[in-house]
Design goal:
The protein is of the alpha+beta class. Helices cover about 15% and strands about 35% of the residues.
């Protein structure tokens, strides 16, 4: 079954963008390195947290996506030509604190559904 490489939850009340800087050592790539097959390159990830009931969220699941390609350029070349794109799925349970520690810097911006904020300039008053 094909999926869309885009975040989405049941109601999508909040949507936005995410940006992060990779750690110099020990980050996301290092976390998934033991699961990568020889000749694979990590090209994406998804962080999924299920239902949150009575203040008790489910265990966050970090899902990595890898393709054949020994480095950035060969992986990019594959993605630009592949129809359909085929990604191999890698998974680990992770705590929120451990997820945050995978990045040097991280920022998430989100807007309430239907608000025309994404990608627009604004001033804080």
């Amino acid at each position: 079954m094909a999926e869309l490489f885009k975040a989405g939850v049941q109601y999508d009340d909040w949507k936005g963008s995410f940006a992060a800087d990779e750690l110099d050592a020990g980050g996301l790539r290092a976390l998934f390195a033991p699961q990568l097959l020889s000749g694979e390159f990590l090209v994406g990830f998804r962080l999924r947290v299920g239902e949150n009931h009575a203040g008790r969220p489910s265990t966050p699941r970090l899902i990595g996506f890898a393709v054949n390609g020994t480095e950035f350029q060969s992986a990019k070349d594959y993605l630009e030509k592949a129809v359909p794109i085929e990604l191999r799925r890698l998974e680990v349970d992770i705590t929120p604190a451990d997820f945050l520690m995978l990045f040097k810097r991280l920022e998430i911006m989100a807007e309430w559904k239907g608000m025309p904020l994404h990608g627009n300039e604004f001033r804080v008053i």
